UniProtKB/TrEMBL annotation:
GO CC annotation, single: apoplast
Locations listed in the record: Secreted, Extracellular space, Apoplast
High-level lineage: Eukaryota, Viridiplantae, Streptophyta, Embryophyta, Tracheophyta
Assigned protein family: Belongs to the germin family.
Record's keyword terms, sorted: Apoplast, Disulfide bond, Manganese, Metal-binding, Secreted, Signal
A GO molecular-function descriptor: manganese ion binding
Primary localisation category: secreted
Annotated source species: Cinnamomum micranthum f. kanehirae
This protein's name: Germin-like protein
Gene3D superfamilies for the chain: Jelly Rolls
Highest rank taxon of the organism: Eukaryota
């Protein structure tokens, strides 16, 4: 009985002790300092303003006059310092007719996409048995893409499409598979060996995407 009472009393004492770790409401990123694995260092509170918590860029149509006919406008911690340390961020996706965001991954976070205009065919590939999950999404539809998995978005209609995406990280990262393989100086012989493509195909893709070697 004494032991039970002692444990109960000790628990109450622990709960009543003030925490030595200061509770911090937010950590607005100081973009003048380099970003580390845990994000940006916190801006001094005296220098924080309401503008650090507001981002207006997602109301502007992205420039889709490029190779993939798509534009992603990020509101990550580098553009929107108010989300630094909060585990969230957003972006806008514009897809012109025939636009595509090729197979890519976000190593730092999961993604939720909501279509607000047009039709988007979207999907991802699981790491277990390479199962493919894809669907044609219309206005108001939402799809989730688990962290780190290869996924894509394609304009599935005859009009421009717009979507807004949210991430479970203030800096989810981005790696587009095609650009990782063919837009750098990775020697063609290595690309051919690791992708089973022949030399002519690799050279053609490198020429289109600006790679060398």
């Amino acid at each position: 009985m004494f032991h039970i009472f002692f444990l109960f009393f000790f628990s109450l004492q622990l709960l009543s002790f003030p925490s030595h770790a200061a509770v911090q409401d937010f950590c607005v990123g100081d973009l003048s300092l380099p970003e580390g694995p845990a994000g940006y260092s916190c801006k001094k509170p005296a220098k924080v303003t309401v503008n650090d918590f507001v981002f207006s860029g997602l109301g502007v149509t992205g420039n889709t006059s490029n190779l993939i006919k798509a534009a992603v406008t990020p509101a990550f911690s580098a553009q929107f310092p108010g989300v630094n340390g909060l585990g969230i961020s957003m972006a806008r996706l514009d897809l012109a007719v025939d636009g595509v965001v090729p197979l890519h991954t976000h190593p730092g976070g999961s993604e939720v996409l909501v279509v607000v205009e047009g039709t988007i065919c979207a999907g991802f590939i699981s790491s277990s048995a390479n199962l493919v999950y894809f669907k044609s999404l219309k206005k108001g539809d939402i799809m989730v893409f688990p962290q780190g998995l290869l996924h894509f978005q394609i304009n599935g209609g005859g009009t421009p499409a717009i979507a807004f995406v949210s991430f479970s990280s203030p800096s989810p990262g981005l790696q587009i598979t095609a650009f990782a393989l063919f837009a750098n100086n990775l020697p063609s012989a290595l690309v051919e060996k690791t992708t089973f493509l022949d030399d002519a195909q690799v050279k053609k893709l490198k020429a289109v995407l600006g790679g060398t070697g």
